[in-house]
Amino acid sequence: MAKFKAFLKKKNIEISLKRYGIDALGAMAQGLFCSLLIGTIIDTLGKQLNIGFLTQTVATISGKDYTVGGMASAMSGPAMAVAIGHALQCPPLVLFSMITVGFAANALGGAGGPLAVLFIAIIAAEFGKLVSKETKVDILVTPLVTIGVGMFLSWLIAPPLGKAAMSVGNLIMWATELQPFLMGILVSVLVGVALTLPISSAAICAAFGLVGLAGGAAVAGCCAQMIGFAVISFRENKVGGLVSQGLGTSMLQMPNIIKNPRVWIAPTLASAITGPLATCLFRLEMNGPPVSSGMGTCGLVGPLGVYTGWVNDVAAGTKAAVTGMDWLGLVLICLVLPAVLSLLIHALVRKAGWVKDGDLKLGA
């Protein structure tokens, strides 16, 4: 056993929740961002601004036409797998082989492809690392093992994993339609908390294909965390902190949350309020890419995802037009209410003596 553990250490294989549940999951979200999400943004900009070279077909593959953004989106599987391989610190030959693994897992996983990619890419990467540089023909063995394991698992488990992920996502979305108030609170709080924790809310939403009202609640929760922390910590972190948290990530507050968990009260309670407002009052739906549901105001991806969904729905004829109420709901849920509610709640928390000056200082 000691020799086996030493071998795993030599191969930089660390079987842990942090490596697989935090590092790999977070990297997968980055891969999605750099492919599917960017592709969707490019397509949306092209259509809304009438930019010809962004809307015209640049390639036709197997009878399917692709725009610039469409090409980027089509590479989501390889992008996720390579990002995961990078997070697992794969040697070059393993990392490059992950392109094929990601494509296969995502394609065979269907709508639940991201979850299939997560599991299969991790296993294929670790098998590739096991054999890497162990033979004199590494250039053949390592890619063969990595791709072989990945392709076999894609054939074996990607379809059921994809179906399972979509079943869970559909259950959440069905429950949100059935009980928009309670599920609005639950989805908003849980996804918002996941965004601030060192895991990936974006990858979770993508894996479960979370859109519709549930996606809107997720957007509300993520925005409440990011905008909430940005405004309540303004006295300590000024404009730099406002931008880095409001347009970057509320995860920056994790060291402060560990020191004093009560600093988390205001943004979390704000998300519990904005979630049901999004689902019950404004009927805010996120029908863009599911990954956008878990991004919040990071690069304004959450609101952009909602807008993309509106555009797609109007084009499909399922929505008559984008109304003033739509815009009002989006601005209030994503920006105004998270700021106002978090400031009010945080003032009460400070008055109770639970949080003091300096508790939200970044880099403290």
Structure description:
- With 364 residues, this protein is mostly helical.
- It folds into two domains: 163 residues, no CATH class; 173 residues, no CATH class.
- Strands 1-2 form a two-stranded antiparallel sheet.
- The radius of gyration is 22 Å and the shape is globular.
- The mean pLDDT is 92.
Alpha-carbon distance between the termini?
42 Å
Q: Name the poorly predicted regions.
A: none
**Average of the residue pLDDT scores:** 92
How many alpha or pi helices?
Answer: 16
Q: What is the CA-atom radius of gyration, in angstroms? A: 22 Å
Largest sheet: 2 strands, antiparallel
Helix percentage: over 70%
Shape: globular
Per DSSP E runs of 2 or more residues, the count of β-strands stands at 2
Count up the domains: 2
Q: From N to C, what is the helix and strand string?
A: HHHEEHHHHHHHHHHHHH
Structural class: mainly alpha
**Strand order of the main beta sheet, please?**
1-2
Proportion in β-strands: under 5%
